[in-house]
Amino acid sequence: MFFERPESGTKTLLVHIQQNDSELATVSELRELVVAAGLEPVACIESRRKDPHPGTYIGAGKLEEIAKVAIQVDAALIVFDEDLSPTQERNIEKELGRRVLSRTGLILEIFALRARTHEGKLQVELAQLQHASTRLVRGWTHLDRQRGGSGRGQGSSAGLGGAGEKQLEADKRMLSDRIKKINRRLGKVHRQRSQNRKARKRSDVKSVSLAGYTNAGKSTLFNRLAQADVHVADQLFATLDPTLRCLELPLVGEVIVSDTVGFIRKLPHTLVDAFSATLEEVTQANLILHVVDASAPERQERIEEVNRVLAEIDAQVVPQLLVYNKSDLVAKSPTIERDRHGKPVRVWVSALAGEGMNLLSDCLAELLAEDIVETTITLAPDQGRLRAQLFESGIVVSESTDEEGKINLELRIEQRNLERLTGVKH
C-alpha cells in the first residue's frame, strides 16, 4: 500500500485547534477518535487560530512547542484535529521528524480497522487511495528513484537507455489502476443494491433508515427494533457495514430497517463518496430515524451536522423522525412530541433500557401508514389462518361471532394491505 499504518498502541500527541465557536470541536472527541484508531494519546496541545498558516497551519511558535512536547512524551505520531493540505503535512513532518496525521487520515484509520464485509473493505480502501493520491509527494527518498532500460537490443550502448519512469509516476499509475478496479467492483454492488430496492418497491415494502451522529446509540436502537444482533460498543464508529432487517409494524405490515455508518464533524468527502452505495439506502428510504444522543451537551450542533451530511447526499427531502435516545440519562420519561397538526416529530426513548420502544413503533406505523381505512369483514369458521394473520398484524380493533359461527372482525388497516390480505376493496 502507498501509505504506512501506525502500529497499535503508538504514543500519540494530540493537537487541538479551535477555529470557531463550534461546540463539536472538542478535545474529548479527538481523544475518542485516537483511542478508536488503536493509538495511545499521551498529551494534548490546544490552540486557537482564526486563519491557518499556509505553510504549517499553526505557525513557527506553536510548531516549536509541539516539537518540545513530542520529545518530552516520546510521541512517535502527531494527530491534528483539522485537515492539513499535503504541503502543510509534509512541512510539519520535515520540521518534527515524526509522522503526522490529519483528521481525515485519522478517521480513515478507524474505518480501515472496523470494516468487516467485503463491500465495506472495498469502500474504505477506495477512500484511503483517494486520500493518498493527493499526498504521494511527501519527501520520501524512494519516490525520487528512476528506473531506466538497459538499452540492449535497441542499437544503444549498454546502460544508456534513458531516465525511464520515475517511481512517483509509477506509484501514481498504480494508484489510478487500483482506484478504477475498486470502482468497478463497487459498481456491481451499487447495481445489486438498486435491483434489491426496485424489488422492494415492486412488492410495496417500505423502508426506514437510521442515521445520526456516531455513538448516538443507533445500533442498540436497531437491535431493539428489529431483534437483530448488530455489534454494539461505546465507541466512535462501532458499526460501519450496513445491516438490513425486516420489521413487522401494526397497520403497515413488513418494513425494511437499515442501520448505516455514523456521521461526525467534518466527515471526509472521500468517505462520503466511497460509501455512496451504502448511503443510498438513506436517500431512498421512506423515513429517516434521526437518532440523537439526548445526554450530549452539544446535541443541537450534532443534529445540524447530521443534517448537513444528509443534504450532501441529497437525503434532506426524506421525512425525518427525531429519536432522542438515552433519555434515562437526562431523567426524561419516554414520550411522543407532536407538531400543531398532530404529527409525531420527536420521540424520547432509551434503547439500552428498552424504554419507549412501543411509542417508537407507534410513531413508525403512524408516519408510514397511508390510506387508513376502518372496515368490518366476515370470515367463515374455516378461515382461521387468515384470522390469525390479521391478529398478528395488529390491525384488529374488535371481534365478534354471530349465531351461524361466522367471525366479524373490525379492522383498522392500510387500503393496500386490506386488498392484499383479503382481496376486499373498500
Short synopsis of the structure:
The chain is of the alpha/beta class and 426 residues long. The protein has 13 helices and 16 strands. It starts with 10 loop residues before the first strand and ends with a helix.
Give structural notes.
With 426 residues, the protein is α/β, with parallel strands linked by helices. The chain folds into three domains: 11-101, 3-Layer(aba) Sandwich (Rossmann fold); 203-368, P-loop containing nucleotide triphosphate hydrolases (Rossmann fold, 3-Layer(aba) Sandwich), CATH 3.40.50.300; 372-422. It has 13 helices and 16 strands. It has helices at 27-36, 60-73, 86-96, 103-114, 118-132, 167-202, 218-226, 269-274, 276-283, 299-312, 357-368, 384-392, 415-422, and strands at 11-18, 40-48, 77-80, 99-101, 146-147, 165-166, 206-212, 243-249, 253-259, 287-293, 320-325, 335-338, 344-348, 372-379, 396-401, 407-414. Strands 8-9-7-10-11-13-12 form a seven-stranded mixed β-sheet, sandwiched between helices. The chain has a four-stranded parallel β-sheet with strand order 2-1-3-4, sandwiched between helices. Strands 14-16-15 form a three-stranded antiparallel β-sheet. Helix 4 runs antiparallel to helix 5 (118-132). The radius of gyration is 28 Å and the shape is elongated.
